[in-house]
Amino acid sequence: MAMVRLVACFVLYTSLGHIPSSLGVILRTTDKIVWANEFEPIELTCLIESISTNNPRIEWKKIKNGVPSYVYFQNKIAGDLENRAQLREPANILIFNTTRSDTAEYRCEVAAIDDQRDFDEILISLAVRVKPVVPRCSVPEAVTVGTSTELRCLENEGFPAPQYRWFHNNEELPQDPKNSPKFVNSSYTINPDTGGLKFQRVRKEDAGEYYCQAKNDAGHAQCSPQMMEVYDIDILGIFLKSFAAVAVFFCLAACICHSLKRGCFHKKSHSENNYNWPSQTDASYRDADEGHFRHKSSFVI
């Protein structure tokens, strides 16, 4: 009777898709989404909760952009993790120094031929954080009071994308100047996603050294301080315009002198002009009133 009940329970479990753990291989992991810092070690866990087979086949695959490749195959590390990783009991993968290229999905597969459920797999997502490099900062050298200007900061190596902060004379600028008594009269806005620092109306107090910092969970980096001068009048603009006017004047003068040397403006004298004067030897002339020729003097035959 007991045997009948045991068989009935087994049939019921199998019909519902449930197999006792002692009859099948079952895997689990401590983290299905794993973050790691670049150049630091990380371990991907593939824990075998239940198995009957003594020597199961263990494989790891890396899936990037939908394309799988072997990481652990035929009892050895393969692919781009060769010499950078090892298999740890029972089926974990330890990466010694992760790089940004290791960001991908990893699948642990265990096949146990002696188990009723002879195969199981688990998928783990690995994302490698990359520290930002020194950002490229753009700070205008001189601006005029009351005008608008923008300071820029850009970094494109860090992962995840960094957030940006600006510093004025080694003091961090608050995201909202209205929340700080010191900057309440400032008209700037900061975009932490793009790194832009924009002044709607520059004040004399805005002059000084500026630098930008890019930061994410892996670390931060900043550019060198750059000076921004604020003038009451546009001295730089006036200088550049004056310099341009002088340069144009000298260019015109040089062109005129060169043309004079080549004789482009030389006038011919009156004696050199070749005019055709009417002949005075003609003995007759035409009378406009009479409409015919007449003799100027009498002829003697």
TrEMBL record:
PROSITE patterns for the chain: IG_LIKE (PS50835)
Limits of the Ig-like domain: 20-125, 132-228
Subcellular location: Cell junction, Tight junction; Cell membrane
GO molecular function: cell-cell adhesion mediator activity; integrin binding; protein heterodimerization activity; protein homodimerization activity
A GO BP annotation: cell migration
GO cellular component labels: bicellular tight junction; cell-cell contact zone; plasma membrane; protein complex involved in cell adhesion
Transmembrane segments: 235-260
Gene3D superfamilies, per database record: Immunoglobulins
Main location (coarse class): other
Family statement drawn from the similarity comment of this UniProt entry: Belongs to the immunoglobulin superfamily.
PANTHER family: JUNCTIONAL ADHESION MOLECULE 3A (PTHR44598:SF1), JUNCTIONAL ADHESION MOLECULE C (PTHR44598)
Name of the molecule in the record: Junctional adhesion molecule C
Organism encoding this protein: Parambassis ranga (Indian glassy fish)
Underlying gene: jam3a
